[in-house]
Every structure is written in structure tokens, then in C-alpha cells.
Write a structure and sequence with these properties.
Shape: globular
Radius of gyration: 13 Å
Structural class: mainly beta
Number of strands: 5
Strand order of the largest sheet: 4-3-2-1-5
Largest sheet: 5 strands, antiparallel
Order of helices and strands: HEEEEE
Strand content: 35-45%
Distance between the termini: 16 Å
Length: 83
Amino acid sequence: MDRKLYLDMCQKVSVLPQGVGGIKQNVPEELCVIYRDVKLYPYAYMLAFDEVTGEPIHIAILHDMNVNSIRHVDLSRVEGVAT
């Protein structure tokens, strides 16, 4: 997924109402993403660097609404939800 698009989605999700435990409620379909066939919402972004090559690693931090968990995944493996 494009980093700018992902960051825009994170910002939009950040202002949505929160429910129990800070879980976002009523996340619109267009702000959800897919990772390994699971629908999640963007929570945050992290930039890291490969310890061997020094290349940047773009990490999407995603919230799974079904099991209330956070996943740190390679941003390039995240897909937008087709609307």
C-alpha cells in the first residue's frame, strides 16, 4: 500500500469515536485494510531500518476489530478494501 494513502487513512481513523478499550467504532469500509485476508483498520505507522542493509522498512500498525489485537506488518503487504 502507498505510504501517503496509509498515513491519510490513519489520520482519518484517529478522529473516529472510541468504544470500550479505545477500540474505534463504526469504521467506514473505505478506511479499512486487508492483511492476510483479515479486515483491520490502520492504527499507526512506524519507520525502521534493516540491520544488515540499512534500508528503510515501512511498518503498518493495524488493529484487528474481531480479536482486539494489534499487528505490526510490512506496509507493502497491506491492501485497501475494494469499495
